Every structure is written in structure tokens, then in C-alpha cells.
Amino acid sequence: MHMINILIAPILIPLLTGTILLLIPKKITAQRTISIIAGIVLIAVNIFLVLDVYQNGIRTLELGGWTPPFGIVLVGDMLALLLVTTTSVLSLPVLLYSFRSIGREREKFYYYSFYYFLITGVSGAFITGDIFNLFVFFEVMLIASYILIVHGGTKVQLRESFKYVLVNVISSALFVGAVAYLYAVTGTLNMAHLSERIGSLDETVPILTVIAVMFLIVFGLKGALFPLYFWLPGSYAAPPPAIAAIFGALLTKVGIYSLFRTYSLIFVNDTAFTHTLLGILAGITMIAGVIGAIAHQDVFKILVYNVIVAVGYVLFGVSVLNDSGFNGAIFYLIHDMIIKAALFLLVGTLVFVAGTSKLKKMGGIIKYYPALGWMFFVAVMSLVGVPPLSGFIGKLLLIQGGANAGDYWLVATMMISSLLVLYSMIRIFLNGFFGKPTLERPDQFSTAKGLLWPSALLIALSVLVGLGAELLYPLVDIAATTLLQPEIYIEAVLKE
Amino acid sequence: MEIVMSIVAGVLFMAGTYLVLSKNMIRIIVGTSVISHGAHLLLLTMAGLKTGAPPLLGLEASNYTDPLPQALILTAIVISFGVTSFFLVLGYRAYKVTGTDDTDGLRGPDAHD
Predict the structure, then answer these.
(1) What residues of chain B lie within 8 A of the CB of A158, using their CB?
(2) Mean pLDDT split into 10-residue runs, chain A, 496 residues
(3) CB contact set of B26 (below 8 Å; sequence gap of 6+)
(4) Do the Cβ atoms of A159 and B107 come within 8 Å?
(5) Most buried residue, A58, A60, A81, A373, by CB count within 10 Å?
(6) Domain boundary assignment for chain B
(7) Chain A residues touching B111 at Cβ < 8 A
(8) For the residues of A287-303, what is the DSSP string, one character each?
């Protein structure tokens, strides 16, 4: 194997792992061992790729030896590789949490296979350099997610997965339609080639603006942007916490990444319209999400609405089209993937020990589970963006980017919604962990112990990202520079 | 010819949308299938329906039809086939568990209650 082929490893390793796990459904110990080993190898390969791109620039892989734009090309630029690495790093603790929480019955029915197929789809969507191949990887990810969301087959899961599948089937059909229009106008599907053809136009072409808005609808449906987020609260609260964690951390982020990619690389023909629209929708998404987070009394629902708020923050960074905005959006995206996984696991543990997800029925849990309580507190502080933790630098850069672009209303909206996010989450902390003790089942002491380690790993990671922002900044800056200057990307892919 | 096909694709999208908005699970699933047909037809139409030989080099024609959209549609068809079969089984299972094929009947208290 030539070194040049290593770029396919983030797709190939989970794909092979998932396939091997299909062969041994009943041997749970073997399944767990193989999935752990594969997870560690995946992290090592991804970190190697990030360092390689940091030293040598964008790495591309022409599949089958066909030169782009004629073949499918995989493009490992810094943004894609940072996100693939974050995906693999956070998927390992969630896997450990699954061992403890998912139950034998689910484990025997190909749970780990579909877990790895989901990661295959996510990694592929991040790395691909072809718009139709992006559609295919979306489908790989979605089909694995359909199965994970209904896995176990409880009544609530069946109901929510019916809605979830319906929404995603329709958005996939729209995706095919949007690709059809784009192919009719430009005659190519390779992202770099599309960028070159559209970038060379001198005047704005109205049909391209229409296609850009179509892609906004498609990726907005996948990424839960206002007014297309209606499916998310029910769907993400239905499956068990380990599955909800991987959904909350990864699925919407692929939609956001695709918007990030298309709106920085391809649709730069009429930014006055498209990016203003994106900014307005991002602003309303922040407000709508935070209203939902405050309104609900169910701890899962509160958290799920916070996923929507984060979508608004990142897309606000995309809409401003400047260096600080892009840096902030990338920082916040990485931070949010990690912290949402951690929070879903912590809230899952909280519901497990409290025996209810209703905020009004729980209280005083910190007396029995101090570690859980303080870990939740640190995670909330990180989510909101208290300085030493990972959420701070992203938000600071987003505010700076917004101010540089003159979007003061959006900056104000973002700061107010951050405050309300703090309120919505600290309500869980004060009400659930303090207050009148209602715990009647202290027998679950020992069983909850193993559930805390994976969340501790994720919170440690979030603290490291916050403290090591100085080290991470050069990498993020390279990613943002590549996005702001599509020439770098085009040159790396088409080699002109 | 493209205009006629665009209208046909539009009618398919319209019929699919109407079916998806109904209450009956099977109608919804048939609706998603019809929408997929519309999207595939749109893909074929948008690439141009100019006359030419089928894309087989053995035919030695002077010009061929565009092979790329045909490959894209083939991919999209198998994906939508897989998803539709999953969707049908999901609908069947939901019908077995809830005892109704009316989507309003799927409402109910959450498992977390």
C-alpha cells in the first residue's frame, strides 16, 4: 500500500470493521474487542493525517487513477480532517458508554456494525470532493442512523423513526433534484471544478442563486436550520442515550459542514443574497432553539433544543464570510461535537439514576452522585463558553467576525441566546442535582459507576481543547484560510 | 422533449407531495416512492435528452447519450429501493405495535414519562 492511499483509511477502517462485525453477531466480547481496537487505530490514523496536512498541505486521492474532474477525488483539507479526527475521537467514549448501557439484546442485533457504518458515512461525507459522492455518503450515514434510531423497537422509537425516515427520504429526493439542476447548469459534479466554473463568472447568475437556496433547504433539513428543524426534537429524544449522543454529536454536523463547504467553495456568485439569507436563518435558529430549551421540562428535550442553538451559532460564522467568523465557526463546531456527546451521556446517566426524565420529579441527586453532578456543571460551563473551557474561543471569534462584518444584531442575538442557554442548562443542575431529594432507588449506585468514565473522557477532551486553543489555532487557521481562498482548494485538486 | 418531461416530473412531485401529506402510512410511503421517481426523471431530463446512441462503444455511433446521469440514476434507484423497503417494514412494524396505520394514531405519551 502506497502512502498516498492513506487518505481512504478514515473511510475504509470503519467500513471493514462494520463488515467484520456482521459475521459475529452473537459473540459480544469479540465484537467489543474489535470495535475498541478499530476505534483506536482510526484515531491514530486521523491524527497522523492532520499532522501530515499541517506540514505538506492538502492531500488528495484520485480514486482509480482517474484525474479530476473525471473521477471521484477524495480531498483531505484541514477542515475535513479536523472534523474526521473529532468524529473518531468522540466516537470511542460513546462506544465505551454503549458497552455499559445498550444491553445484550441490542448488542446481539448488529449494534456495533451499524455504529461503524454510521462513522463510515460521516467520515466519507467529510472527505469527499464530489457532490454526488457526498449524496451517497449522506445515504450511508442516514440508513445506518435509521436503523440505530429504531434499534430495540419500542413504541416511541417506531413513531419517531417513521417521521425521521420520511423527512430524510424527502430531503434526499430534493438533494438529487438539486444535483440535477447543478449538473444541467455547470456540467460537472467535482466540487473544485464546480468552484472554478462558477467562480470564473463575472456577473451573478440567478439560476445559481436558486440552486444555492435549494442546497440550503436540503442541508438545512439535515442540519436542523430554522424553519426545517421540526423533526429533530422528537427524533433525538427517542433512542437510548448512547445513540442520541452519537446523533447529537455527528448527524446535524454533517449538514452544517456541507453548508460550510458549498457556501464557501461553490456558491460565492451572489453572496449578497445567499449569505444574508443564511445569516437571518441562523439568527432565528438561535432564538427558536433557545425558546424550546427554556420551555421544556424534560431533560432530554432541553438538551435536544440546545443542539439546534449550536447550529445557529456555526452557520452565523459561515454567513459572515471573513477570517475570524470562519475560525470561530470551525472552533465552535469542534467544541460542540465534543460537548454535545458529553452532555447526552451525562443526561442519559442522570435519567438512569433518577428513574425519570421529568425535571419536576427529580432532585437532590448530587448527594448520591457528586461526580456526576460536578461533571455536568463543568460541561454546562463549557457549553456556554466560560473562559478556560472549549466553548469560549469559538464564541469570542464568532463575535469578532460578526462585529467585523457589521452584523451587530446577530452578535447581540447570539450573546442573549448564550445567556438563555446557560439558564436552560443550569436549571437542570439546580433543580435536578440540588433541591429536595426524591431519589428512591439508591440500589443503582454500583451500576452507574461505569457510565461516568466515558463522559469524564469527553469532558477532559473539552478542557484540553480549551486550554490547548493556542496549539489548535494554527490548524484551524489553515482550515479557515483554505475556505476563504477557494483557489488553494482548486489548485490542490485540479493541479493547474 | 425536455419541456414535456419537466412537466411529467412536476406532476410526479405534485402527486407525491399530496400523498405524503395524507394520514395513511402506506399512502405516505407510496408518496415518497413517487417523489423519488420524479427526482430520477428530473436528473435524466436535466442532463439533456438529445438523440444519440445508447452509451455502448460497440455501437460505433457518431454521438452517444450522456452516460453520467444514467450512472447517477442507477445509484439513486438502488438507494431509494433500499430505503423504501426499510420504510415499508418500519410501517408494518409500527402498524403491528400500535394497531393503527393512521399517523395520528402514532401520537401518545413518551417512553420517558
Answers:
(1) 90, 93-94, 97-98, 106
(2) 79 95 91 94 95 91 88 93 95 92 86 95 95 95 94 88 94 95 93 90 87 95 91 90 93 94 89 91 94 92 94 93 92 94 93 85 83 92 89 92 91 93 92 76 61 91 91 92 90 85
(3) B91, B101
(4) yes
(5) A81
(6) 2-49+67-105
(7) 154-157, 238
(8) HHHHHHHHH--BHHHHH
